[in-house]
């Protein structure tokens, strides 16, 4: 007989201070907050450190109710105990609220309180299980269990687990992700407290007495050797990055630049446009520009743009100052992928451009030069000399790795650019290759200096577990190689120019390789903007800001397939798995892999043994890889179930597993009608893997200001699932018993969420409550092997979600109406963020697109707004509406009542007679809501329907019977 493990209920299974966590997440995602660990190396869809820290803390700390819950299973607690628990939770909430603040990331006082609370809960758990047969293995009160994230990605979760005092293990299939995690949790503790090895630091007067803290020595060496590389780079290829001599003819029309004549200025960037031969036979010999815009700056008072000057069958570019005209804004672009010949105005179709490009006849032409003035940008026309220098570069090596022909994420392939080496200019390739070579050469110098400083010359590299001079030289080289990655991201032909900020934007403003038609080429050897110096600065400052620089910190990062890994055994697990097909990690990370491989192979030869990142086993639904959409979906769901099953089998049994999920709700049409994809399917996969779900928490963990999020309906929330392994002997239960238990459990859970802080203010925002209540509801559903319907069939996850939603909905409204009702309660008629709407729609079993299709809201530009009754179309008829929620029916009824009175409203009611009672209930509820909120005008509209209902019903009864028969539902 197996002895049961006693598992105290954790804080995350009961309540969280979501407002504080979400506010901290939003702040952390903002630009300009200073150095951040994400600055080490780019990774996509990273979780904020605040969310990771809060979730791990809350999944390890016991909820104040734990002892009573264990001693009184299935019983309702008395009110006096609930009040006491709420007060205790308030204390835990205050720890979380301090813990998530950005300024407290390395605050040992705040972190110490959190670690003490985790240890206290752990010892309580160990005491409970001291007589368990596996107590020595699983419940050592003097040693916290380790942590594991099998989809480690950008490393936020393992890093924060380490910060909270756990031995952190990160694993990922992708070698770039593994390297990032090693740089965050594995390498820093190895060299914590070590002095810098560079000669300047060794020879400093105070070196003998200096106390090197954390990673100070490592960061100082990164700076020193980074500067040495720059000095050598300027010798080797400085001729490719010349200054520009300001001549009078260059500044024609720019009187304010007269003082610069005769001076040589540093160049910040060269502005290029792609070209193809004109399709007009008369100009077939001319390479015409494919510029999407000619605008250089829209900054107030500093506006500038390029103007092409036509001279017969040729043209040249000049720079103009002042507000750019519409022709400059439009560039040579006609529509998406199509342009015009600036000489003949002939259209240049997308098909023509593709055929020319694939044939190797797409070129580039210098359009303008951005130079560095006295605290300003100077815009200059191109010169033949500058263009010739750029094209004279001859790289000694180039990446030769083709990428997937994926039209959704990798569009350059359609234009003949399907190899990573083709995404750079000759000069960029020459510079990046030289930097990579110099990092390798500098590693030898670092090794020599490390030995001279007293480190062991053991010849053991990082992959072998080294901590001597060789491993140290590996470590500094890895952080320097991250500077190469940053230059590649900002310094390729897919980077863009942002006129409003007069700045270079990196390639990965979203998780894709998009085609660009004009691009900036930065001066890698400069001292400002996108250059080697700043790239190195980002690396060492990010390391200093994020690393847990203490000797007692432990961490490891390993390459492993989540479907086969065994690292989760006996560990606390929190993970952020891939979201179906949202991010093609392997395909786009090859962009960095081709550069990192050369610079980092001496440190990790096995990790970088392959020519590209692994693709076949990656848990992403990629149709191109699996032979179609259906096969890709099957691969993803089966693979994710296997990965989740390993977590259910291996994770420490005393703790819940937390899983981040952030896939935007969508809808598909099948034979049974419109159904939801993503959310309920993922829940089903998690449950089939053997998990019972005990909590769902919405968190604002997505970056809403990013390029993908601005002006689009992009994802803005993550759902954190809280899961326990379901007992193997779990039994089945009837639908009636399930409903009875829901009605018993949900009121208590709701009370804890809305008053868990011990104050009147709810710690769960109303817009999030619908999602959060799913947690305790699914806890009831998923603890059983199955919930059986009246006919003996198993209840689906989707049906269970619908039943849970009804608890908050109160009335039996359709899903669209439930969404509208709760959105209206939160926002009224005002605009709200798409991400919040998406979270609410997911909780209500619908989608924003679906509600939009119903005709009751507008969703565009990243915002959502309900339509007022005045905005509903007068030509609408019920018989033509194949998606008619109660919400829509009511507001059409108000519209008709306002214009046609009781008789018109009666005719409409007769056409929707099957929805009549629900429409009346909704009108009454909205009247009450508006009255309490002080929305007098809206309350009056609903009140008129409620008070006139009898008359409207009478008019409906007198309406022609044929209409009722035809439209009866």
From TrEMBL:
Residues 15-94 form the DUF1156 domain. Pfam families: DUF1156. InterPro entries: DUF1156. It comes from the Bacteria. This is DUF1156 domain-containing protein. It comes from Sphingobium yanoikuyae (Sphingomonas yanoikuyae).
């Amino acid at each position: 007989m197996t002895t049961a493990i006693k598992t105290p209920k954790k804080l995350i299974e009961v309540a969280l201070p979501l407002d504080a966590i979400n506010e901290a997440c939003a702040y952390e995602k903002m630009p300009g907050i200073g150095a951040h660990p994400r600055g080490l190396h780019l990774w996509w869809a990273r979780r904020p450190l605040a969310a990771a820290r809060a979730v791990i803390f809350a999944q390890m700390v016991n909820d104040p109710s734990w002892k009573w819950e264990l001693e009184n299973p299935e019983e309702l607690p008395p009110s006096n105990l609930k009040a006491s628990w709420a007060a205790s939770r308030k204390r835990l909430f205050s720890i979380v609220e301090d813990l998530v603040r950005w300024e407290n990331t390395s605050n040992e006082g705040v972190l110490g309180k959190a670690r003490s609370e985790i240890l206290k809960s752990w010892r309580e758990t160990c005491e409970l299980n001291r007589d368990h047969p596996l107590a020595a293995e699983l419940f050592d009160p003097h040693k916290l269990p380790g942590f594991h994230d099998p989809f480690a990605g950008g490393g936020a979760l393992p890093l924060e687990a380490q910060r909270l005092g756990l031995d952190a293990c990160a694993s990922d299939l992708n070698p770039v992700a593994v390297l990032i995690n090693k740089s965050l949790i594995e390498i820093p503790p190895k060299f914590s407290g070590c002095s810098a090895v560079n000669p300047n630091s060794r020879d400093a007067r105070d070196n003998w007495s200096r106390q090197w803290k954390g990673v100070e020595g490592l960061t100082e060496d990164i700076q020193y050797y980074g500067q040495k590389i720059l000095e050598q780079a300027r010798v080797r290829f400085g001729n490719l990055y010349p200054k520009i001599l300001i001549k009078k003819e260059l500044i024609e029309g720019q009187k304010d630049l007269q003082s610069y004549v005769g001076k040589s200025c540093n160049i910040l960037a060269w502005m290029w446009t792609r070209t193809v031969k004109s399709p007009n036979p008369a100009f077939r010999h001319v390479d015409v520009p494919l510029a999407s815009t000619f605008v250089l700056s829209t900054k107030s008072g500093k506006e500038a743009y390029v103007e092409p000057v036509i001279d017969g069958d040729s043209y040249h570019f000049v720079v103009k100052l002042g507000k750019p005209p519409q022709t400059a804004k439009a560039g040579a672009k006609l529509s998406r992928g199509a342009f015009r010949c600036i000489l003949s105005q002939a259209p240049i179709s997308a098909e023509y451009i593709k055929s020319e490009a694939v044939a190797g006849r797409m070129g580039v032409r210098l359009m303008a030069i951005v130079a560095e003035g006295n605290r300003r940008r100077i815009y200059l026309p191109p010169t033949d000399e500058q263009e010739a220098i750029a094209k004279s570069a001859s790289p000694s090596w180039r990446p030769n790795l083709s990428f997937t022909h994926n039209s959704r994420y990798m569009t350059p392939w359609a234009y003949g650019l399907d190899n990573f080496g083709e995404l750079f200019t000759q000069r960029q390739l020459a510079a990046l290759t030289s930097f990579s070579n110099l990092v390798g050469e500098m590693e030898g110098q670092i090794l020599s200096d490390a030995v001279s400083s007293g480190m062991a010359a053991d010849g053991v590299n990082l992959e072998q577990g080294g901590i001597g001079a060789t491993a140290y030289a590996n470590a500094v080289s890895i952080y320097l190689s991250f500077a190469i990655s940053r230059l590649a991201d900002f310094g390729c032909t897919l980077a863009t120019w942002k006129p409003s900020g007069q700045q270079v934007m990196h390639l990965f403003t979203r998780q894709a390789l998009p085609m660009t038609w004009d691009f900036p080429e930065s001066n890698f050897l400069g001292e400002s903007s996108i250059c080697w110096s700043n790239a190195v600065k980002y690396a060492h400052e990010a390391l200093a800001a994020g690393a847990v620089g203490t000797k007692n910190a432990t961490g490891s990062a390993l390459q492993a397939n989540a479907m086969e890994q065994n690292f989760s055994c006996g560990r606390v697990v929190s993970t952020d798995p891939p979201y179906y097909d949202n991010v093609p990690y392997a395909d786009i990370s090859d962009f960095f892999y081709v550069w990192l491989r050369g610079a980092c192979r001496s440190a990790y030869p096995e990790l970088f043994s392959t020519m590209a990142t692994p693709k076949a086993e990656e848990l992403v639904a990629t149709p191109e890889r699996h032979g179609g959409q259906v096969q890709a979906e099957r691969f993803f769901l089966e693979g994710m179930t296997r990965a989740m099953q390993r977590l259910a089998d291996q994770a420490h049994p005393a703790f819940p597993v937390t899983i981040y999920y952030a896939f935007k709700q969508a809808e598909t049409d099948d034979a049974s009608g419109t159904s939801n994809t993503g959310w309920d399917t993922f829940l089903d996969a998690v449950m089939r893997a053997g998990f019972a779900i005990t909590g769902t928490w919405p968190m604002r963990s997505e970056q809403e200001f990013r390029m993908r999020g601005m002006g689009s309906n992009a994802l803005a929330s993550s759902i954190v699932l809280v899961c326990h392994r379901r007992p193997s002997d779990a039994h089945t239960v009837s639908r009636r018993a399930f409903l009875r238990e829901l009605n018993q459990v949900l009121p208590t859970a709701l009370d804890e969420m809305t008053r868990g802080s011990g104050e009147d203010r709810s710690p769960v925002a109303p817009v999030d409550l619908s999602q959060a209540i799913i947690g305790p509801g699914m806890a009831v559903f998923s603890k059983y092997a199955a919930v059986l319907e009246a006919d003996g069939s198993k209840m689906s996850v989707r049906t269970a979600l619908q039943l849970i939603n009804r608890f908050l909905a109160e009335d039996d409204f359709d899903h669209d109406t439930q969404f509208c009702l709760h959105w209206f309660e939160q926002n009224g008629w005002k605009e709200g963020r798409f991400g919040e709407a998406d979270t609410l729609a997911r909780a209500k079993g619908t989608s924003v697109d679906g509600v939009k299709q119903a005709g009751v809201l507008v969703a565009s530009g990243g915002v959502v707004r309900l339509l007022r009754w005045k905005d509903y179309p007068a030509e609408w008829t019920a018989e033509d509406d194949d998606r008619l929620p109660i919400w829509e029916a009511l507001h059409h009824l108000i519209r008709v009542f306002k214009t046609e009175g009781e008789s018109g409203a009666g005719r409409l009611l007769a056409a929707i007679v099957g929805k009549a009672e629900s429409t009346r209930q909704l009108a009454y509820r909205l009247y009450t809501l508006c009255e309490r909120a002080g929305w007098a005008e809206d309350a009056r509209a609903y009140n008129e329907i409620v008070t006139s209902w009898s008359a409207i019903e009478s008019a409906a009864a007198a309406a022609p019977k044929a209409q009722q028969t035809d439209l009866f539902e």
